[in-house]
Structures
1.
Amino acid sequence: MALVLDVFRANQAPLFSIEPENSGDVVARERLLDKAMGPERHRKSSEKLRRGRVPSQGLAFVARGRDGRVIGTVRLWDIHAGITPAGQPLNALLLGPLAVAPEFEGKGIGAALMRASITEARRLGHGAILLVGDAPYYERFGFFADKTATLMMPGPFARDRFLALELEDSWLNGAAGMLVAAGRKLSTASSRKAA
């Protein structure tokens, strides 16, 4: 399914659109993330789960401005959210990073990216989304820290910023342990092109 969402203001051209990310967006996305998140973004615990992987199939989105340039981005990644009480890895998604170009903040772009990614993850049958972020922002989308109390990130993290949204009721019940990357690996040829 090709998700395209145009966001309008009355009697005007779309302010921005939410679209699936494509291979031509790589450079613009990376520049946006550097600008919005700074050079320390590669040292975060979440990055350890993303490194050398590709986003979950169909769950990488960009926001495009009226001129077609990338002004926002969000990606979701396949992970194992610890193990179930039966000792099986529990499939889930890790969201991030979510970023909007600083000059476009406050226009609803981040919220539109969040809604699009949650809606598509639910449609694709995923059970839960986890993230590390500001609780006051993400709580409005249904993310809370109580669902991650028995889970750990691989590296330092702030417990009160480690949040989850269950797309299926009780998906994370009984899950415990370390988050582990589970997604498709980035091929060597692809990683050279992306660098």
Note: The first helix runs from residue 26 to 37.
2.
Amino acid sequence: MPDIFDEVEEDLRAERMRHLLTRYAGVVLTLALLAIGGVAGWQGWRWYEARQDRTAAQTYVSAMLEAEATGPTAAAAHASALAAFDALARSAPPGYRTLARLRAAALDADNGHAAAALALWNAVAADHEADPLLRGLASLLWASRQLDTADPGLLAARLRPLAMPGGAWRTLAEEDLALLDLRQHRTAEAKRRLTNLMQDTTAPGGLRQRANALLADLNG
């Protein structure tokens, strides 16, 4: 008898399941299609992003090569590079947008367009969506380019945060601050900074040599 009851119960379960599947087949199919579509959409988006990155990288490298052109065709190549960098800055993935603006600023500076270069560096430094490392570099370049001309207080305000311990641009910012001290005739403070740089084993070798040479001149 227990076996018969079990078989009947199983038959009833199977019948109920058939009714449920018949009644909700459309819903189940829709959910399955949505799940499959979601996975396919995610994979498609990843493919699209990878393609965008590859395209931006190729455009960036080509523009870099044009920016380094010399000789009779240099002016035309530089103009083409600036146009490419401008296009990347407007539509490329975030990392390439920032790199394109920085490279365009450097090209402007090399070609004597100081105002355009400063504007680009300033824009990157103020862009909170850009990588903090690149924002710091933009601030450093902005200050370095006008150490002899801009307001000393404004320059110092940009450089001091970069000179904080542990910063990626600390030693370069310290060097600029030493030069800014000399501009303001604060020789003792400049010597202190230069001495620290000369003794700093984490500073680049070229920077330490510059600090040593400048100290020698000051101690003449």
Note: The chain has nine helices and no strands.
3.
Amino acid sequence: MARETPVSLGGVADQPRAVDLLRRALASDRVAHAYAFVGPTGAGRTTTALAFAGELLAPDHVADHARLRELVAARQHPDLHVIVPTPPARNPKGPPAIRIDDLRRLEHEAGLKPVMAPRKVFVLDDAHRMTADAPEAFLKTLEEPPDRTVLILVLPRVRALPATVLSRCQIVRFAARRHDALAGEMDAALSLLDEVRA
């Protein structure tokens, strides 16, 4: 297995507003129980979620924090739980989704004490891929969050989940990243178009 390079919030590129909001929460020790990281694919939402998890689970003042951050980056820290959409158990080629059973496991895990860190972090990647009945089941966890638990939902847009779910999360917006290679190609294409018109 390839070794993952830990990312700190300082290493997150092109998202100064999101990073600043999260840093202020850490500095003031006013971390919300639930966040919704909202933005387009490629904006660094999941990378930022793991960087934030690293800060929460292995702060700089903790001994051996570098090794603990590596565990977070590799998604192997015992207090980090990353939930991703998966195909149905009975149909491996079926559409990936986050199902009620996944959220029940999350609820059970969240009720247990953290193993190593002061809290547990749950990242729901592509949270908009919950089955139709799953958001309602998830509401109880959001309304009565277990102590020492932080939930991070990664979404492409605000309306991807019901308002009842998002109203219980602090929304962190991510802007589309400017890809220099793509921008260069677009500039070249526009230049060529201008030549053709001339």
Note: DSSP finds seven helices and five strands in the chain.
4.
Amino acid sequence: MRLGPLAPGRWPLKLKVPLLVVVFMLTVAVAVSNVVLRRLASDQELHLQQLADSYLDGLSAAIQPNLLRRDVWETFDALDRARGLYRALRTKYALVALPDGSVLAASDPIAFPTGMPVPASLAQRFATGDGLAIDEKQGSAWVKRTFRQDGHELGAILAEFDISNLLQIRREVLWALVLANAGLVAVLSLAGYLVVRRLLQPIAVLTAHVHRAGSGKLEEIPPTLLRDDGSEIGQLVASFNQMASAIRDREQLAIRLAKEGRSVLLGKLASGMAHEVNNPLGGMLNVIDTLKKHGEDEQTRLRALDILERGLTGIANVVRATLTTYRGPAVTPGLRSRDVDDLRFLLQHELARRNLTLHWSNNLPDALPVDGLTLRQVTLNLLLNACAASPPNSTVEFEAETAGRGVSVRIQDSGPGLPQNVLELFRDPRTVPQVPTEELGLGVWTVCRLLGRIAGRIEVLRSDNSGTDLRVTIPFESAEVVDAVA
């Protein structure tokens, strides 16, 4: 069963603490009252025993000679006189019983006639011997003393006393304890409530500020509300103010860093654009040199213009691809075999500058359902990196073919191998950072980002001092034409 707001765990602290004090005080009061009442009962019983012994001592001296003679009237007279002498005992009756269990004389001869047996209920109370028997429910006490002479039993005195006055004293003491403890608990509970509420006032102020902080309004607690007196509460408030100040400073720093990060990101984007546009520009400049030298040849001129057109189209596609990063996916053109062959002309300037030999093998069909723009960008970046890594007068190898349900591109160079951070990134391109780093390089970062976008993968077949062997696999966008191109 759920109590909701009535559950004790939801009660305010200023209420729970006084209630705990009340519980503890009631526990102590009950324990103390029980001890007091037990001690009072013990003292009353001892006092009653002493009075009963004194009563029996006096009565025994007067009755024992009469008991030997079986003198009923003298015995009755002694019982009657003793009743008047010991009024404090409030004797209800007293009787003298003979060894055979019959009554010799009684203070109430009507209730206990001479010669009649002692009532069984009275005899059972002293079945185990003489002494004092108390019954608080009936408000009575019974006492018995047996007379013996020369080892022979002469008889016994039995008497009943009214102890209702003693029980009344106990009840009065009990009510006095209850009222005193109740008053003390009420006063101390009220005082505890006021004190705890006063002590928890700083906590209430702190809680209010924390709630406002949760809604985005983090403010320091002004000194006018709370006094920093060096106590635990004061230290807690001081810590909260320090935290609020630190968070406010951190928010301001985060805003400033966000602005700076936006500027850095724009710079990275600009450098990436420049990098991707610069790659085809090298080949286009090489085509222009060819036109200058052999522009009068119509075949050369038409071929050069075709390469220039596709180079400009590639630059436009780079810009369009950058825009789609923010505008969402768009339909990409397929791949033609000559789109890959164009990369040879884009590399001629770098190959000639470093005196490198390019072994080219393009076994792709004329039309493939892959992202042609991305494949060209990835391949061109890796080829330029291979040229940059290879020493002069060495060889760079390229091979492209269909493999299963995708395109496989293999690039080998004669360089010193890949750095360790690049190897780890190629093993899992998904770990590429959001922005390129100086240690990683823009080309490698671009390759990993592009492959991640089209679910491509890159394998390092070899990477040592004799060179690097990479294989890039890009899956087909549709499986409907796989059989036609295989």
Note: Confidence is low (pLDDT under 50) at residues 326-331, 479-486.
